[in-house]
Amino acid sequence: MRPLIEPPETGASAQGPADARPADAGASGATADRRDPETFLPLPRLAFQILLALARGELHGYAIAKEVERNTGGRTKPSTGSLYLSMEKLREQALIERVEGPDDAGDDARRRYYAITPLGRRAARAESERLLRLVRLARERDLLQDDLITFPIPGEARG
Fold this sequence. Notes:
single chain, 159 residues, mainly alpha, Arc Repressor Mutant, subunit A, 3-stranded antiparallel beta sheet, 5 helices
């Protein structure tokens, strides 16, 4: 889907911090964003869950909430308010963007669709790697039982 073209905002207060978008980005921030994804770490838990949900494809807000719930086995059920506050912050940081919904979906016209940006994908990857390092450290310190680890860890030999 194409990013929605939003009217350009003027002035630093309308855009947030002066570095909120790269200088070469358009209104949607869709150009190559060269910011270091490490600057967003650690990601808040809900923000990371939103990025994980959108990593599979474009979704509307309610579908994002359901995907977060499904991905966490029901342990995280974001309220509408917390979900949209987190999504707005992710938009301001150019980690997600609003996109046009699918033409053939027959969805309610009020639904707003979102997609992860390339910067958002890099930030989610960096957060995943950060968490993986913590899990490895916990294993080294005998805080995890080996039989609880049932998924392959990249770069780690399984015996």
